[in-house]
Amino acid sequence: MKWIGLGAIMYLYGVNHINRLAMFSIKHNTTYNGWDLILTSLSERYFITYFLFPWMIWHSVSFLLKDSGYHILIRFGSYKNWIFYTLKNFIIMYGKLMFLWIAIIVISIIGMPFSFGWSELSQINDFSFGSQILEKYFNYPVLALLSHLLLFTFSMVATHLLLAIIYVVTKSRTATIFTMILTGLWVIGSGKYLPDSLYPLNYISLPIGINNNSFVVFIAVGTVLLLSIVLISQIDYNFQHVWSFFKGKGTLLIFLLLISAILWKGTSVHGTQTIGDKFFYIFFGGSIEGFNFFNFLSYFILYFGFVYVVQLHLQKVLSQISHYMIIRYKSINRWFWQWYRKVAFSILVYLTILALTSFIIGRLVGGTLGFSTTFESSFSTFDQYYQFFVNGYLQITFYVLLVFMISWLTAEPFYSLVAIGILSIFMFPGLNLIKVLPVGLNSLGYLTGHFTTYTISLLLLLYILLEVGILIYLLNRKDINL
């Protein structure tokens, strides 16, 4: 019976949208199609606020409280397994709801004009309907629909997981119900009394969120969902263990958040058309001709940040080295190359993930599918990606080997940080006077200078060979202390 009632409400909202679309099209002498009704109905502010979201959190808490008996917890063996069991039930209910919603919309568009492109109405410079907002960001309506459903689904799943975490942590039905009521009131009342950044529908309905905060809503929801999953993976331990886990992984999490922010900011710059343009701007770094603080900051976070994470891992490895470990590997040289082989592979994976992520975000923010740059340049597309992958790999290798040498000699991570800071200074204009200091040479900005990509590769290789020679000497000294 409840599903019939909800279906009736959905149908009434759909009829109301059809009437609004018809009146708007007559007023502006334009035509509309089925996509206008689909996108506007699925993102309707008042329906989500007063009916759909309360419905979802009510069922979420109902699943948590109904399936929380000790016999059920014993059957699953852990809170983590139990939470994912309730999530499965929640997703089944969510699937039924979305099927009903979409089915009613499909019934409503029978007899309505339909095409694979945007209608005349959606292309008007207006923000009365969801389709008019999404048309400004997506080339095709089907991409807008899939993106909206993805954001909506992630938001609902994240909401359920957060409620489940609260229930497990508090072990209180009252606290969970109280949290549900507060969440519902927040969604209902925040549109009038809170700023846009705290308006929850920004992170549930794509037309609302993208209009206020661009695509940053995906990062926000994705981050909350990821952190929820990480917390659930540790939820069966005591709080001290959970705190230790986050303390140990805190640097990595902050690093990932900074990378996400840099990539998003870099791909959103005005004047870039293709994903190749956006890629060039993100990884521009330094250059001989000039200096840009955002480019410098991006380089510092993306590259020196990675080296710092490697240095933290190295610090842990060096603290565990002993005579027994050397006996196990038979020589200090073999131990080093076993360790560095993993680092070398991680550098390749890191660069690949950076490139793919920048392409995906660049496409999401409206970049056209083209890997070359559209502006006039003296370098080829091959040069751009050779500089990023090959010289990027060599440059990070130089940084990592330098950090290893300093850590091996001093056993103090502080001196490695000082070395990174000193190196970064030489990226400022006028300081790298002889133009051959091995810092920032993998910047795409050097493609516009006087060095060819192969000259940079040769220079970095020479410095790496010099480092290897010094390392061989250091690792084979007779006076090393373990």
Write the layout of secondary structure elements.
Blueprint: H1 2-28, H2 34-42, H3 45-66, H4 70-76, H5 79-108, H6 130-134, H7 141-170, H8 173-193, H9 206-213, H10 216-233, H11 239-267, H12 275-282, H13 293-319, H14 323-329, H15 332-364, H16 381-410, H17 413-425, H18 453-475
Helix pairs in contact: 1-2, 1-5, 2-5, 2-7, 3-5, 3-7, 3-8, 5-7, 7-8, 7-10, 10-11, 11-12, 11-13, 12-15, 13-16, 13-17, 15-16, 16-17, 16-18
Counting DSSP E segments of at least 2 residues, the number of strands comes to 0
Average pLDDT over all residues = 80
Low-pLDDT windows of residues: none
**Globular, elongated, flat, extended or rod-shaped: what is the shape?**
flat
* Rg of Cα set: 28 Å
Order of helices and strands: HHHHHHHHHHHHHHHHHH
Helix content, binned percent: over 70%
Give the terminus-to-terminus CA distance.
74 Å
Helix count equals 18
Q: Could you tell me the strand content as a percent range?
A: under 5%
Question: By helix and strand content, what is the structural category?
Answer: mainly alpha
Number of structural domains: 2
Largest sheet descriptor: none
Structural description of this entry:
There is one protein chain. This protein is mainly alpha-helical and 482 residues long. Helices cover 72% and strands 0% of the residues. The chain has helices spanning 2-28, 34-42, 45-66, 70-76, 79-108, 130-134, 141-170, 173-193, 206-213, 216-233, 239-267, 275-282, 293-319, 323-329, 332-364, 381-410, 413-425, 453-475. Helix 3 runs antiparallel to helix 5 (79-108), helix 3 runs parallel beside helix 7 and helix 15 crosses helix 16 (381-410). The N and C termini lie far apart (74 Å).
